[in-house]
Design a protein that fits this description.
The chain is mainly alpha-helical. It has one domain: 3-Layer(aba) Sandwich (Rossmann fold). Strands 1-2 form a two-stranded parallel ribbon. The longest helix is centred in the first third of the chain and has 18 residues. The radius of gyration is 14 Å and the shape is globular. The two termini are about 25 Å apart. The mean pLDDT is about 80.
Length: about 80
């Protein structure tokens, strides 16, 4: 992303959802999206910890292998929105 990094984008989307909840009188049924971070860079444990503290749900590194791609797509099903360790 030329203007911002992925973590900044997550923060902006999270802020948008928080603002919308306030506008809708704190409606909790406004479901926040699942934040999946895909990086071309090596993702070490320190970065994973930092990203999760910023609201990222799942992290993957490029290139994805077919099993990882299937795992990522399974997160899009309603029962798949569980935080992984």
């Amino acid at each position: 992303m030329p203007q911002k990094n992925g973590l900044q984008a997550v923060q902006e989307v999270k802020a948008f959802f928080a603002e919308q909840r306030v506008k809708l009188f704190n409606k909790t049924e406004l479901q926040e999206p699942l934040y999946i971070f895909l990086s071309a860079h090596v993702v070490n444990e320190a970065f994973k910890t930092h990203a999760r503290s910023q609201g990222v749900d799942h992290l993957f590194e490029k290139p994805l292998n077919p099993v990882q791609l299937i795992d990522m797509l399974s997160l899009l099903k309603p029962e798949g929105k569980k935080k992984k360790a």
